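Minutes, methods subgroup
Present: GH (chair), OT, SY

1. OT presented the first of two proteins processed in the latest run. Sequence and structure tokens recorded below as shown on screen.
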Amino acid sequence: MRHTPWPGGTRRPGTLLARYEAELGRLVDHGLAELALARGRELERLDLLMRNIVQQSFDGVVAFAEDGRVGTANPAAEAMFGLGPGGLAGRRFEQLFPDFRRFRPAGDRAGGADGRWHGRAVRPDGGTFPVELALRTIALDGESRLVAVVRDTTEAEEQQARLRHQATHDALTGLANRVLLHERLEEAVRATLRDGRPTGLLLLDLDRFKEVNDTLGHHVGDRLLQEFARRLCRCVRPGDTVARLGGDEFAVLLPDGADLATASGVAARIAATVREPFALSEEAVVEVGVSVGIAMAPGHGDEGAKLLQSADVAMYAAKAGGTGVEVYERARDRSSLRHLALTGALRRAIEGGGLDLRFQPKLCLSTGRLLGAEALVRWTCPELGVVAPDEFVPHAERSGLIHDLLAWTLDAALAQVAELAARGLPFAVAVNTSCLSLQDRSLHDVVAALARHRVDPGLLTLELTERAMLRDPEGAAEILGRLHEAGVRLSVDDFGTGYSSLALLQKLAVDEIKIDRSFVARMTRSRSDLVLVRSTVELAHNLGLLAVAEGVEEEEQARLLRQLACDAAQGFLFAPALSGAEVAAWARSQATAAAAA
């Protein structure tokens, strides 16, 4: 029996519907009409299902005839173009998708349309929107048809743009971040090398920002950074880039022919705007400074990383010299490299035991009895050699390592105290601290270290300079008060070199005053210095405090201090800074002498 096609026309060979038709034809040929009827109904349901899928699809489906005009389109496609049912009919492919290759029939060897493309589609009102277009040429009823599956990618592109913005902008200030700055910096330097038009780069950070953060809290520090960012943006041109690199470090990129005069003018405007106090709340009005380093391409760097390094050198020079603004000078590179090397080396020394602790004995002037010792950190770096405390302590404050340095010093000093206590030799130790490290974290470090080594808090004295406490008297008073309540002794170091000394002492719960070595050194030759030392001793006694002279190197100085009834002293006249073993031997000899007496 000859095969009879199923009614409804021919299907493209190999498709699911074509295979169903072929099977139905074979069933009819073999006299199985009832089974063929059942399969026919299944085919109708499948066809209906396919039609429903197309009709309900979120993607647009558009079928084009051989002449390139729309034949049919589902509701999703019509909605994308802002049209009602049948609104797309008769419109040409290139009207809807001008970004894509012109439609050519599948038989045209010059080029088919099959594939997946990205571009923009055009609505009848002229508006455009981004689309992803999947094109496929099929044979239907003996004709070639182009079927386009259209996906509106507006939301996807907006999401991609949001992710790109998050990756290239600072979340707190909305400014460009380090990633975007590097991209634009490299582009600007390439343009400079190509066109000969200079590019300027300013690197800057806020002075005293850490004090604001530590004393008023991070939420106030964040508001300060946001307000500073707004002020920065008012100081630059529309095409310039203002970026936050992290913390309180910012950068300003001046492309498109900005010369040194332009860069210096921007730096001056920045310095001027920072001089205005920052009113961050009704209670918090703060004043900070700014240090700005300027570098110019191509003279100071012919690639982005080098220009950034040069600006950093200049900024460090501005901060170290207190000048506010500096232009890069090649001669400063050596000191800048040392600055960079110090940070890494000091961190390794703190973490890896590269520091050494020495102890300078403190004696009672009337009896000569050992009262304790001041712990002094010493550092010999394998790469840099001997680094003086006058260099690495301020560097620790600037680089944020001061907390770790204080924690190490406390741990090492209290370990020595605990060792001597275990031998029956009570020994008091004094540790220098810093205003930048005097906060809740410091309080926790002190209490934790005392507990860890099981040391009586009365055997620990914390020394803080008068000038340091004057940076934040209220904050210092709160933390020192809590330390005093915990039993820790407190000392004002370098007394007389700051200001408002009496008012400061009335606010702070301190136990002793240390007379600065500069006054002690001149008291035998200068009447005014002698009067100052006498007044300090009397002030200490009137306030119920201990008076301690530091830097005593001559017997005449010791004699005068005894006459003035100064309580204690330390210096090379009595002993240099000793190692842990040497100070232990000193303590034993003192205990033996006391027992014999």
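2. SY then presented the second protein from the same run.
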Amino acid sequence: MKILLTTLNAKYVHTSLGLWYIYQYCRSDYPELLFKEYNINQELAWVLGEIYLTRAEVVAFSCNIWNIEETLTLCQRLKEVTPETTIVLGGPEVWAEPVQIMESYPAVDFIVIGEGELTFKEWLCQYRKAQPDWGTIAGLVYRNDSTVVVNMPRPQIENLGIIPFPYPANLTEFRNKLVYYETSRGCPYQCQYCLSANEQGVRFFPQERVKQELLQFVAAGVAQVKLVDRSFNCNPRWAKELWRFLITHAGSTNFHFEIVGDLLDEEALALLRQAPAGLFQFEIGIQSTNRETLTAIQRKMDFERLRQNVTQLVQTTAVFVHVDLIAGLPWEDYQSFARTFNETLAMRPHRLQLGFLKLLQGSGLRKQAAEYGYRFTREAPYEILSNLWLSYPELVQLKRIEDLLDRYYNSGRFGQSLEYCLSRAESAFAWFERFSDWWKKQGLDEFAHKTKDLYGYLLRFAETVGGWGAFELETLRNRLKFDLLNTERMVELPDWAGPNQPDLKNFGFRFWKDVDNRQRYFPESPDLEARDIQRRTLFASFTVEPLAEGNDGPESKLPVAERVYLFIYGQAGVKYYKIAPEG
């Protein structure tokens, strides 16, 4: 007998934490258990063939918002080719309306609701029996002739220590994957757009065990571990102890945490200042700064404290800060969302995700959809189309702004040029709104773009919208040139960046023949030949100082010779230095 656990991940690099838990919890007692992960980018016909070739008697799928449509299609096709196969579904996307799913999809035989480790193991025990008694299993939905039976809910697992480490001892195959992990389950908050509001309390895994498991990821050189704890620092003492431990044992692994920004205290901020670059990444959900909205979704937030904490994280630590907003929440119209956007971007997080409300099945807002006038897609991911405060055309406009926000702000490629543009704008939202209007009129939303072309588009926008003088445009051009070279080595510059200067290449050869220069700028390889160094570096001149704040002081009047920059390109990124050449 073969029993297959499987799912369609969103991407190849992702892992299915829930299925890994079930596999490790059950496999010692049920060695016939198989586990295979696929992804939604693979051809469904191929996935079906692979599942068929396992010859499994039971196929159990994990269902999520990104894979539910494809999974149900697979279930139907699998029953067509192997009618005797037993199909089990689990995961958050089938918990809210299990009866409707089983009535609509006769290919589905069972649904596991809630935490699956204990329920599925009990199901396996009954499945082995000649006359299984499905009614004894809490958290199970099954068929009894033509009737769908929903058993009593499964109580939460209070002692999480009984669940084993989800992944294999040898983590080699996970080094280049995004590995999901948790130190707790549950959430203390009741945000009505989130399914976690349906849970009661927070349960923690044993802390010493957690530390040892985190060390396994570090020792294996796993690239990134994303902790799925809903609010990692809801217990500040717990969070600070684990952050302190990871700082002490830092390796090459990056750890991503979802945290509550206003719960950080001075001790936490002081601790985080010790974290080396690349160790921590924080995702902080702001969602909205509108008080009526926050009340409606039952979200508590001290925005002023959050603002101060995020600003300190960005300015005084090496933590990468990612913040989230949600467009489409109750009581937030277009103008209100513009204020939320401006207040959030003013903190200058490293990434600002402009998300759109999804009315998840089982969420509080889904139940209030009629009250708030929500129209939304009836298929996953249930994204809103409008509500009482936000029209569909306004949502389309926000989609265009989101696209440009990702290209220009979140890419991290336009630091100097974008900051200059925003400093001259009425507001950040107004600037992105105007840019998105221009983008649409140019037809730039109709096709894909090479990254290097985005620099020229921004300059064209500034040239054509009006209000920019010759010096401002020249300043922007120099900043764009700096941003371009600060991300990639480009010997042949685009036309907008000005003519290439052969004399800088000759200057470079003379510069690198100087032993002092090689030792100063290439201390790790001071013996490299000048021509080898040339391949890893670039000299560029600027007619306006690209890093002067505002470009309106005496720095902007310096002669060209004072504005030559050296860019050094290495595996760890790009370094730049201002050089003052002679002659």
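Chair's summary of item 2: The two ends are 81 Å apart (CA to CA).
Next meeting: continue with the remaining queue.
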